[in-house]
Amino acid sequence: MNLTALVVAAVLGYGPVDGGHAVTRGLIAWSEPSQLRAGAIDDRGVLRSSSTIAVPGGASHMTLAGDGDAFLLAFVQRSEFLGPVLGIVPLDAHGRPTAAVRILGPAADTPPQLVRNGETYVVWDLRTRYELDRRGAVVSQQPERPQFSVVAFDGGELRWTSSSIDAIRHCTYFPQPNCRWYPATYRVDWTFTGASVTVSGSGGGEWYSTASPAAAGDALNALLAWNGVEGIGGVLIRNGVQTRISVPGFTEVEKTPAIAFDGERFLVAFDVYGDIYAAFVDGPVGHRFPVATTGEHESTPRVTALGANRFLVTYERNGVLTGQVVGEIEPPARRRSVR
């Protein structure tokens, strides 16, 4: 069936944002000055309730995981004396904290790696791997620097590493000469482990491709996508079969793409110089469509499946957390008339 992508709802406003946000089905969380806010969202992306959580110094780089009844929010807290530290807080289905904020250890200035593993969670700071229960209490911990990135889904897991294989020299001459080397080409190696299949591969290599892929999937399907000089690149895995994919048409995509999977199709959302675009990826080529192109500096897209062939794309617009629901419909010319 030939489907057309479109925005299917008015713009949704959630509130002022300062530092970042995260969204998953049923829950959204974002940072305000010196506090977090989290709340329940319905299947239309509408905020139904919210709670505040005090975080001195503010927070950024959030990751959410959960099962619909209980969630865990991991975030990077800005500490004046310790630098960035990893914080966690368990939340109920309404976004209310069920235990106090817990600080684990030093963190990178990037989104935390948080994996739901049945009834427990696994999270890494810069030096340690922690296993947590549903209330965020530490079950076990061991020294382990994260040597890879990992995303776990319902019955599947995708791990990858990124490494620079080339660099360029960039110089500025005002107010004084200064030259630095920057990574320009990256290689990505991945392994997908599903219900009855394990596949591995490598890719990247595009000039100016980034080392920050994103992933989503289930026990049989996965999509790993990254940014390149000519748009989005990546690999689509369906029942153990790997297909290289691309979403072409842009000279350069900014930051890490966001991906969601509804059990049938993948949606990728990405930032292009202050505008938000998205693409459904079902084969080698994904066709982009605009989500927010007002020129008001939209950035930092996140995406989650809502069900009924619809997805919520959230993004930050001039300091306000905003969202729009997108979906696919059959073009009018292909619909059957009913008399």
How would you describe this structure to a colleague?
- Residues 331-339 have low confidence and may be disordered.
- The protein starts with a strand and ends in a 10-residue tail after the last strand.
- With 339 residues, it is an all-beta fold.
- Helices cover 0% and strands 64% of the residues.
- Strand 21 (231-238) and strand 22 form a beta hairpin.
- The protein is globular and about 45 Å long.
- The protein has 2 domains: 17-147; 148-329, no CATH class.
- The strands form 7 sheets. Strands 1, 2, 27, 28 and 29 form a 5-stranded antiparallel beta sheet that branches.
Record keyword descriptors for this entry.
globular; disordered C terminus; single chain; 2 domains; five-stranded antiparallel beta sheet; 339 residues; four-stranded antiparallel beta sheet; mainly beta
Let me know the largest β-sheet: 5 strands, antiparallel
Average pLDDT, all residues: 82
Structural class: mainly beta
Shape: globular
Short structural summary:
The chain is an all-beta fold. The chain has no helices and 29 strands.
List the helices and strands and how they pair.
Elements: E1 4-7, E2 12-16, E3 21-24, E4 27-32, E5 35-41, E6 47-54, E7 59-66, E8 70-79, E9 83-92, E10 102-106, E11 113-117, E12 120-124, E13 128-132, E14 138-143, E15 149-152, E16 157-172, E17 178-193, E18 198-207, E19 214-217, E20 221-228, E21 231-238, E22 241-248, E23 254-261, E24 266-272, E25 275-281, E26 287-292, E27 298-307, E28 310-317, E29 320-329
